[in-house]
Amino acid sequence: MKEFIIIIPTLIKSLLGFIHKRKQKKIYELNNHDIFSTLYRVKNEVGNMKFYTHGKYDKVKSQMCLDFTKHKTKVCGLKMKDLLNTKGIDNMSKDKLKLFILEEQGLMHEEYIRSIIKEWKIKGIESEDIDYIIHLFEKFRYDVVVSFEHRINSIFGNSYNDTNFSLMLAVFEMWAMGIDLLPRDMQTTFESLNGKFKDIKYI
Q: Is 28 in contact with 170 (CB distance < 8 Å)?
């Protein structure tokens, strides 16, 4: 009887640990995060932008900006979904998860850049001009990208986020904030182009 009484606290502790583990949210549940509706909203916001050259509506510049945004939001949305459904992500070590997120963030950027380059080349934009636009965008977007890296280091460096779900949630909240700034950066980028592409045939 005495031995049984001694064992009870251990059993209770194990049971509570099991219940807590069962209650932990899974990362795939973030498939319903509002970051995905934010991507859709931001794309529409950019679609409503109108650019002008010397006071006249510049159809080409407006369409190029929208095309860039479409590729970025589509690629980022798909890559984020893939990330959330990565096998074993809930059980990754903290260090491995951080490295994985940083790598995926870099791959997102590389993929949407490749995607828009391909479309712009098909539509007749010269490689030199494409490089110039992308350089402008990355210049105006630089502070956001640097902030992402700093915030990820902070998210993984504190003791408040004690599960992989809470870590990923914090990253998604940060990414959503950056997405909200996308229309500003697109507008700044394409307003800087002046009338460079105004008279080209862009379908």
A: no
pLDDT in tens, 157-203: 988 888 999 999 999 999 999 999 999 999 999 988 877 777 777 76
Distances (CA, A) of 113 to 22, 71, 134: 41, 8, 8
In terms of Cα–Cα distance, which of 24, 70, 25, 82 is closest to 46? 70
Note down the domain range covering 154: 26-191
Residues facing residue 15 across a β-bridge:
none
Strand partners, 52: 57
Q: Indicate whether 93 belongs to any domain.
A: yes
pLDDT digits (tens, 9 = 90+) for 100-156: 999 999 999 999 999 999 999 998 888 999 999 999 999 888 888 889 999 999 999
The type of residue at 163 is T
CA separation, residue 37 to residues 40, 44, 70, 74 (Å): 5, 11, 14, 12
58 domain residue, yes or no: yes
Total-model pTM: 0.83
Position 132 in a domain: yes
**Residue tagged 């990253």 (tokens):** 171
Picking from 82, 60, 41, the residue whose alpha carbon sits closest to that of residue 182 is 41
Q: Is residue 98 part of a domain?
A: yes
Q: How far apart are CA 192 and CA 64, in angstroms?
A: 13
